[in-house]
Amino acid sequence: MVAPIEPSKLGALRNLLLSMNSRPGEADPHNTLVPFGEFETLHFARFVILDDQTTADYEAYGLPKPFYPLSLAFMGDFDGDYDAFVQALCQHAGAGLRRIFSHCAGYDPNADLARWLREREHRPSTYFFDWRGRTVRQLLEEKELHLALASYLRQNPELATRPALEVRDRLRQFVDKELAEGRIRLTPESTTPLAWRVRNTMHLILVPLALLLATPLLLIYAPFYFFQLRRRENSDPEIVPRPNQDHVTKLAALEDHNVTNQFSAMGGLKPGLFRRLTGVFVLWIINYSTRHVFVRGRLARVLTIHSASWTFIDGGKRLFFASNYDGNLESYMDDFVNKVAFGLNVTFSNGLGYPKTRWLILDGAKNEQAFRYYIRRHELPTQVWYNAQAGLTNANLERNGRIRKGIDARAMTEEEARALVALL
Amino acid sequence: MRSNVPSDAVDVSDVQGLVRFGFGHLTEACYLLLRIRDAASARAWLTAALPLVSTAVKLPQKPSTAMQVAFTVSGLRAIGVGDEVVSGFSAEFVSGMAGDQSRSRRLGDIGANAPDGWEWGGPGSEPDVLVILLADVGMLEDWRRQVESGSFHDGFETLACLPTSNLHNNEPFGFRDGISQPDIDWPRQRTPGTTELTYTNIVALGEFLLGYPNEYGKYTDRPLLDPLEEYADYLLSAEDDPSRKDLCRNGTYLVIRQLEQDVRGFWRFADQAAKSDPKERLRLAEAMVGREIGGDPLAPLNPSAIPGVDYVPGAPSNCFTYDQDPEATRCPFGAHLRRANPRNVDLPGRPAWFLSRWLRMLGWGIKSFRDDALASTRFHRILRRGREYGPGLGIEDALRQEPANDPKRGLNFVCLNANISRGFEFVQGAWLMSTTFNGLNDENDPVLGNAAAAGDCPYTGNFSIPRVGAPPQVLAGMQQVVTVRGGAYFFLPSLSALRYFCRRPTQTR
């Protein structure tokens, strides 16, 4: 959801958002405005004031600095469908949300909140979620399961020398007992709604089909496309000054309070239709991969991203990127540069001032220092950030999932049991 | 793309010697941490002392003394380097090691390690200048007197003099140290590819010396000067932009941290965990470090030679990677050595074919959360030049009741890197202190770790030792045994930059 902020109310809005936090940038799950912790399908949420510092970069093309009103973005990563979540949100946090949005231009206190939100909704063009189908409830239950099993093993050190299958049997008995006594819970996975599965399958088939049908056209156009692309790549200005130190200090103050961090960034697209259409097409393709291929804990080689989204705003003239990742920013950037530079290039090289690329995927982020400067300069402080799975890295989540699977499994070989036990 | 500039040989006479040599034969040393009292006198001293600064030239006879000079950001300002030039240095250097809470948090400098409690380098006690003095046995005092002559005392106030001791290649816990160092590509023959599939110990010159291409084939950002500026002709031209003068060429950043080691605490913890069994105690301590106490690696040796790793008869072998120990049953994932230098390549599995390489880059073949979880080592190498302080203490003595006035022991950790953020800070923050390193959790470095809670992950005080066919052995309740007592980021200039500093007019003039 993106809404312009009433300029006279910007200071008040900043203070109000600040009041929701218990640590720098981190929301109190029980804050009175939007008690995020009460929504048991919500993984992550954030409020970001879209204060882009780089709009003057258009001057490199001899274009005037465009004017965009400062906007407020509110986004969440949740299980289930949009309508159900928004309904719950309006029901349990309606008053708080109204108070926040009353700082936005054109807010009408009598309007229907759910409708107001829907009218301002911006769906990401590409959305990545680390593990499709893993709900908040499931991951919290699996966390408890892991803690219970680990402490059981600590209390029974003699098990360390027993055959793994025997250990597993003991663990299963222990889990049964704990389940029976209600100390842990393992809710069976709820079935995915049929409508969603049908839609997903259609998407799975139709996108390649559409591409296949368009292949002759794409092939004919390809030489022209690459000619245009290379010409632009050679002439597009690189705008990678060192980020302002105050800006960096503000961003860093919000980082590393937890094993997981948030990241928000935005920038304008390069002028002209060519880059806009390239951006739309590329994100459409990548979204296919994040919907059908990268659904099990990794985005290409990167194993630390919980979720990531690319969203066009202002009629497609600007792109907003948001993600949640494990570890510190240095290692996140390192992954960008050394593991998935091609992916960063293909999406962000349509952005104004991005380090020079070749053939859309080469160079770019490989110009390591320029890329880091570019990213930091386009990054935005996230005023309010909520993380329902605080303390759990992607590695932890996957380990916990494997443990549960291993406990649930009916039969197992000694080797499989050994792998299970080694996880604890 | 690589910049197409001739790779001229480095003029080693312009480089301070520490970049090339550890000066191991000079067994006495001290680190003078200085404040500039009067810039003109400081410059006068530096002018007179220039011939004493040791360079990277190999001399026919090993010298019996050596001296190195480095500046913090406040030192550069105090000696008269203008703000415009200073702001072109790396952001970490300008901000300083203790200059920003977020940096301290990232480096693990919180709690007992927090800069507020430092003996030097914390708020209000930042040094301007570091003078490193090295000398043969019995010669240090004379050498110091000789260096601290002329206008030294008019120019400088001595904040601290960090002593060192000679523990004969062992660090205070008793482990053989300083075995693994990157092999700097002085002849400039290495042209790293975009994706390196072979582990090598040879590292591009630009990782350790500013003004040369680094492992990305790029020149690290640094201030370049207008050649028309006063005295700029003392400086060399920039290789990547010959129309500008390169103040940093042949210079690098020097990171120093005074790390106090609780030798008794370390061995007591191991002893308790081992229920006082001497063999088990040693095994646990070695698992924490990742080496045998004599220096041999826990990980199996590499079947083939590693470029840049020399075989030294009689010395512990450094010819290993962790490829032969994927389950970490020989050397734990979280061992200090494995954290500090994971010895991996850019793309695990080393796919040779174009197609398999691209599939691998798209993430095919990753089976678990620990496959491919690490950053590529070659971009995060540091050159260590530290020295121990305090008397040695054997294991048995360490376990005895400590005497009154037990002397302090530790390491004056010194490392060199051309990019502090990608070098020291990455190794320290993303590897050693990280609770998310390599798919681990509940633990940071078992030796250097601060055992501090990381956000909502409150159990940082663990150390897990994987075992064959059994759940990993978990040591809980790890104690902090290394405490940061001081630290700062310095710029170790070239000789030509030092000459330029000597000439530099003060800003007030």
Describe this structure in words.
Chain A contains 13 helices and twelve strands. By secondary structure, chain A is of the alpha+beta class. Chain A has two domains: 2-133 and 192-387, no CATH class; 140-189 and 396-422, no CATH class. Chain A has a four-stranded antiparallel beta sheet. In chain A, strand 8 (305-313) and strand 9 (318-326) form a beta hairpin. The model of chain A has no long low-confidence stretch (mean pLDDT 94). Chain B is an alpha+beta fold. Chain B has one domain. Chain B is 20% helix and 17% strand. Chain B has helices at 39-49, 73-78, 83-86, 91-95, 101-107, 140-147, 152-155, 263-273, 278-289, 336-340, 354-361, 395-399, 424-432, 495-503; strands at residues 28-36, 65-71, 129-135, 156-163, 183-184, 202-203, 224-225, 236-237, 245-246, 252-261, 383-384, 387-389, 410-417, 463-467, 470-475, 482-492. In chain B, the strands form five sheets. In chain B, strands 10, 11, 12, 13 and 16 form a five-stranded antiparallel beta sheet that branches. The relative contact order of chain B is 0.18. Chains A and B meet through helix 7, helix 9, helix 12 and helix 13 of A and helix 4, helix 5, helix 13 and strand 15 of B.
